[in-house]
Each structure stands twice: as C-alpha cells, then as structure tokens.
Amino acid sequence: MSAYWRLLTSLLILLVLLTACRDASSPQTGKTLAQGKFQEYPLPQDKSGLMRPTVDGRGRVWFAEMGTNALGVFDPQSSSIEQIEPPQGAHGLMGIVAAPDNTIWFAEQYANYIGHYQPETRQFQTYPLPTLAMTSTEQNAVDSLPSGANDLALDAQGNVWFTEMNADAIGKLDPHSGQIRQYPISHPATIQKFDPYGITIDPQGTVWFTEAATNQLGRLNPQTGELSLFPFQQTTNSLLEVISDPQGIIWGTTFRNSTLFRFDPHTQHFTTYQPESDASGCYGIARSASGEIWLTLPSANQLARFTPTTSRFTLYPLPSEGNSPFGIASDPTSNKLWFTESATNKLGMLQP
Q: Name one Pfam family in it (predicted).
C-alpha cells in the first residue's frame, strides 16, 4: 500500500470519528459565522476522486481527478469543464500547480512521474522518477514501489520541487535540463518512515515541507542541500498542507486536532490556532491576496478564514450537506476561493 493511501485511509477514519465527537478540551480562538456567495459545479460523473485545485493566470481552475484518471479544468467564463487524460495515467494524480506561463505541472504518483501539460498545444511531457525496492515482511519478497510524488511547488527559477512520500525524500526537477535530484530526509535513506507531504517555497527560495508521520516541519537549503527539522509540539497530530506568506512565515494544517499552525523561522517558534467549528479536522490551506489564511474543514463541511491581525476565524458553512471540502486555492485577481468537494464530485467557489 502506498504512503498516500495509508495516510488517506487513516484520515478518512478520523473524519468519521471526529464528526461525531469534538475534543472539547482544546483551546479555541474567536469565531464568526458568515454566508458569502457560494457556487457549486457538478462534474459529469461520480467517483471523480477530486484532489487539490490550482488557478492559472487566466482564471481557469485546474484540478486532479484520481478516480477518473484525468486533469480537469474549469473555465469560469463559460462554466465549462474539460477532462484531459494524461499519458500512461495510473489513477495517481496528486499535486498540481499552475506556472506563470499558464502551463500545468502535476504529480502522477502511481505512474511514477512528474508531468507537464501545455494547454495551448495540448502536449504532455513526463519526467520519470526512480523506482524503489522494498522487502515485504509478509511474503519475504521484494516489492517495487513508486517514489510517491505528492505535493508540488515552483521556485523563482522555474524548478519544480516535490515531496516523495514513499522515498522519504524531497525532489527537484530542473525543467531546462530535465534532470531530477533527490534530497533524502534521513541518512541512511529510508522508505515510508517520514511521509513528507506538503511543500512550499518562501520568498528567499528556501524549501519547506511537512512530515505527516513524524509531525515535523522540514527546511531545505537549495544552495547547500542542508536539511533542518523542527518538531511540532502536538505529537499526536499529522502535519499536512503548508504555505509561505510574503514575510516568510510558514502556515500549515494539521488534521487530528484541527489546528492551524504558524511557524516563524527567525524565532523557530510555533503558534497554533483552532477554529471553533462543529467538528474537527483541517486539510487544505491557501492565502488570499489580502493576507488572510483560508482552510477547508472536511468533517464540518465548512471553509474557515483566519485573519492574522485579529487571530479570529470566520466560518463559512457550505450550502449543501456532506461535501467534505478538500483542497483549496485562491484567485488573487477575482478574490474568489476555489475548492474541491471530495464526497460529492463538485467544484466549489466562494466569493466572501
């Protein structure tokens, strides 16, 4: 079983448990309920397996569909959805990011490559990743595993950085040369011990990532390859998605205790915040152009807006029930939030 499916299975189990039972002893911050303007766009089929979205420079919303083995794109101007099948797809589409030139980078976890799609020419380019050999303790045999590419981030030079959940490594793809370099998290290298999950690049070009299995925030110096790890104080949590703001502050989500964390690289101090929601569990994270932090709360069926200047949450219940909002992205030109609804096969939009 891949690292992603192991983690996803545990998250789904927690989702059921947390929906029925909140941790009343957890500290809460102030909250406000709001409605906003929601719009939902159904996909043409069931079991799409919607993952994270991204917004390109033309305002089109791209998203990965594991279930239908497709890249999806929604055009808000025409309200049309197109689904594009990647080469040698193996139902493993994960992280996705729009480049400044409006081309799309994505991770195909099971086909074991980083993909690049050019919408203007409709051409794909794939960059294969190393295959891992892991001894099976049950059958005393050697299993072949993909590297487990999960989340993606682009630096100022156009390099593609990504987490590798099976390989316990951070990967870097130079699109000009096609060369891929791996930075193992541990020495000697391990397999499926750390589960590096989310990734982001700060304004100085430093790479930051989360470790879902060990509850640590990682930092990688791209110039020297030096790795530093910062343990999170809540040891029973799973660090997931992560972003950087223009000041270099790192923000991220944890699932089990429904926590938003803030990490200051200068003081190396974590600060945590918890939305006073009807259920626990945070997943997706995005930052708006005005500096607010947005989260998805899957089990509560809500989006949450956190205002750093006041440390207050504003909660936005979705208009229909049982959607389980998953990934989220902000369109800086329109002030709209786009999110995937994993349980109901819909793409959602919120205009606060």
A: Vgb_lyase
Whether the CB-CB separation of 284 and 327 falls below 8 Å is answered with: yes
Helix (H, G, I), strand (E, B) or coil at 1: coil
Exposed / middle / buried, residue 111 (Cβ in 10 Å: 0-12, 13-18, 19+): buried
> What six digits make up the tokens of 207?
């790479």
Q: What's the number of CA atoms in the CB half-sphere (13 Å) around residue 156?
A: 6
Checking 220-228 for CB contacts under 8 A at 24+ apart, the result is: 220/170, 220/183, 222/155, 222/172, 225/183, 227/183, 227/185
pTM of the model: 0.91
Number of Cα atoms under 13 Å in the Cβ half of residue 104: 32
pLDDT tens for each residue of 140-192: 667 899 999 999 999 999 999 999 999 999 999 999 999 999 999 999 999 99
Which DSSP category does 9 fall into? H
CA distance 13 to 47: 18
Domains assigned to the chain? 3-351 (2.130.10.10)
Contact 51, 93 (CB under 8 A): yes
The stretches in the chain having pLDDT less than 70 are: 1-31, 136-141, 278-279
**34 and 352 in contact (C-beta within 8 Å)?**
yes
CA atoms within 13 A on the CB side of 70: 14
